[in-house]
Amino acid sequence: MKLLALLMTGVSIMFSVAASAQETSGVQSFMQEADAWRRQKGERLVILQNITDSVGQAGMENITKAEQVFCYQVENRPAGYSGYTIDGMAVTGFCGVVNADLRDMIVKQFFATEENISTVPDKCLIRPKLMLRFVRGIDATDVLLSSPCHSFSVFYGGKVRTFNFKPGAEIIDVMVNSFKTSTIPFVSPALLNQLLPVGVAQNTEQKAIVKERKTTAPIRQWEGSGNEPIKKAPVKKGWNNLKM
Known about the structure:
By secondary structure, the protein is of the alpha+beta class. It has one domain (about 1-240). About 30% of the residues lie in helices and about 20% in strands. The chain is built from 6 helices and 7 strands. Helix 1 runs parallel beside helix 5 (about 170-180) and helix 2 crosses helix 3.
């Protein structure tokens, strides 16, 4: 319970950083200490060997030595979707930059805690909820969190590896539920000429771009032109049919 309380606190802090960006100018509000990942409070972090072997050394170094970690809300890509995507999934919102403490906790719980991961295959359909992008230099490794089919998938180098996180399901649920009603609409960082993939207007010029775009087409094209819900076509093949 102590771990979950700390996780909840970390998630709350992470969102407060994202939310405050709508009221401030400049991207500095999203910046974190460059070497914050090195803080392990005196303990040596040992990544599980089977994860390193599966993901690869380069992909794991992006995670353990990440300079920034960005959080996005995602869902299965609807039929006819032409909006923004990440690893083939529709981006439905931006949920902030992960702060240093939460970042360390995520790496430890997902990649260095053996009791949170099951080696027994689980027959369930992956449900995309959150995508964490671990950025190091110009390289990045993506980690997808799924619920209620509790798992995490690591995307790197054109490959994806999925792990059964059922024993640690409560950790994923805390993270997903904390952002369920607390998302910020995603705007293309390229559209806003942002060097960091923040996706939130940071100054007057960027806000003007967003305002102009809204008069011509939805910022998130997956919303459609009316209020009618977009029907999702059943997915019969692809990454989300991966078996853990």
